[in-house]
Write a structure and sequence with these properties.
- With 67 residues, this protein is mainly α.
- It has three helices and two strands, in the order ααββα.
- The protein has one domain.
- A hairpin with a 2-residue loop joins strand 1 and strand 2.
Length: 67
């Protein structure tokens, strides 16, 4: 993967994270129910957070493999 393409993927991932962890999206999951004993809002936030970390890892790993 080229350096400029990696940079574009990381920027896109950053904006996706900003969109998913901002008020309008979080308001959807601000309900009083629980899933697996965890409030739905907390579960959503931590799931998105872990997903963003994993996607960042995959992008960086693919870049290091080509070098």
């Amino acid at each position: 993967m080229k350096e400029s393409l990696k940079s574009q993927y990381l920027w896109a991932l950053f904006f996706l994270g900003m969109f998913l962890l901002n008020y309008p999206m979080l308001a959807i999951f601000d309900i009083q129910s629980r899933w697996l004993g965890i409030p739905v809002l907390y579960f959503c936030v931590f799931s998105v957070w872990i997903g963003l970390i994993l996607l960042t890892f995959i992008i960086i790993k693919r870049t290091k493999k080509d070098v």
